[in-house]
Amino acid sequence: MDLFFVIVTVIGLAFLSFVVADSKSLRNKLRKQLHPAVIASKFHSDEMQKLFKNAGWEISSKNYNLFRFFGFFGFLAIVYLNAWFRGDLFPQFETLIALILLLSTSTFRFAPMGIILHWLHNRNIIRKDGELISFFILYEKNRKRSKGYLQFSEFCKQRAIESKYLQSDLLILVRRIDEEGLEKAMDWFVSRFPNDHPFVKDIRSIILAVEGMNDTDAAAKYLEDQSKIISGICSDVYTRKWKLLGDVANIFTTVPAMLIFLMAVVIVFQYTEIIKQQINTFGG
Amino acid sequence: MNWFVERIIDVILHLCYAAGLWLVVYPLIENYISSIGRKLDYRMNIRFRMLGEKLSKQKNRIWLYRHIDDLLYLTKKNYEPGTSVFRFFIQVSVVFVIVFIVVMLTLGDIIGRLTFGDPFGEGIYVQEHMPAFMNWQFPLLLASLSACLLYLKLRYDYATIKVKSSYDLLEVVKLLPKFANYSVDTALQKVCDLLSDDNVLRRPLALLAVSFSNYGSKQELLRDAQRFSGAIGTTFAVELVSSLLYAKENGSTWLTSALTELHRSMEQQREAIFEARSNSRDAILLGKYVNAGLFIFVNGTVALSIGFNAYIRLQFYTSLGLTLFSIILILIFISFVIGSVLSRPVLDYY
Lengths: 284, 350
Known about the structure:
A: mainly alpha, B: mainly alpha, 2% strand
């Protein structure tokens, strides 16, 4: 109880000195810093936000961090106050549990959350590639029609309504075509993908070549020639998707196998415990 | 173990009793359900019909309706726009209420009152006293699990049917050129009648034909067509739907050639898929059976080595053995389900 009164006295003295102090600028600066919104904005982290956006989640990193830290501190505060009022020892076990929870929900690359976010990001990349390839194949079919094919920007607009992962990119592409012309717009589109993307540059060159030709027959013949490249791209995307699925399936296969062995070991262990007991009572 | 079997039989008989009551009540309220479902569908779609809003802007509070509606569109054989969702909600809530009441009155707080004695002595026994009436935790858990099971079954059906629908689209594309000289909606209706019975696209195609014949505005037709292609979700579906829409506007003189081209590329892709047997697909299929076999083999070996009687007592009469056993069974079941969903590839370019 004495400690409590000492702490209250110190806080009161600090507050008194703050109120009495003459310097207005110091007071204003302190008040500005202690404003709740300013403190909350310190919890925002740009890389965490980028990780969330890549994985396709719509949480703000500020809310996530606030939830984490306040959960951690609130839980610890309740546990410590409990122990203090009851006169127990320092609760080591609960502190350890809280620390473990805090660390495991961080988005560090090898923490559980980080691994989940990274996996979601990979899955989104593969789906985006799939939509890109489907966009390109539909464009090829569209252009091969001898009469009544859509113009490129109209085609992009229609595809944007239906795609999920490419939607924003395609709509901005349409606007850029109107403003800057086809070449600059396609350059921007390629820059939206990572630098070592296997086939987006091929797509760009084919689209630029075809859009440059006015004659439909020549365009159709050019697309026929390029069809081998296109089918090569398709099979690449296909194998990459199945490799990711294979990883998932591996996890689902190995975990039950490990549990089965664990259970066998547990049963045999219990059996030997009983046998040991019997030997001790009868043989000793 | 007598008490255990007794209680299980109690629960099963009570569930049958409650299910029988529900079956008696259901035909009486069926009309009522249909009309409420139609009103629900009207209210959900009114913003679109009146204001012609675009497809992409959806409010948060109706995402659940939209989600379940999309799942039911493909899976139910007698799907109707609003009624199916409402019927599904009623089913889930009835299952929840029935399981909750039955388990609460029969089993009660049994998990909290189990004690695990010496496995070779009296085993598991329950402290017998009058069940407290307000014990709700375990029944609540069991009831929400059963409600979730219904939803999970719907998801599983959706995943398998979606894969099958991409192959059934091939049959539709094969039949369509025969009627290419009719108008689009008549052609679609005739194709619908000719489809085989296990084709999962019968109902969606019938709905598409109806919307082609009487649509209120061009946006409504676009929306229904996009719903069809979005449900199947492959590039070929989008291609087919855009050809149909184009034919509707500008006449169907070239529809035959477009459809034969589409058919040719679909067959080509199907053969490519058959040839490219990727390794991981075989591994997924194998993993399903390896786990079950391993389970039986390991347990059999342990049982043989320490004696069958001792094994049964240690496995099922101790808390650790029982929990591990049930966890492993559940995990094997889940891996079976997920393996069977993942192993068949969709007929598409990617």
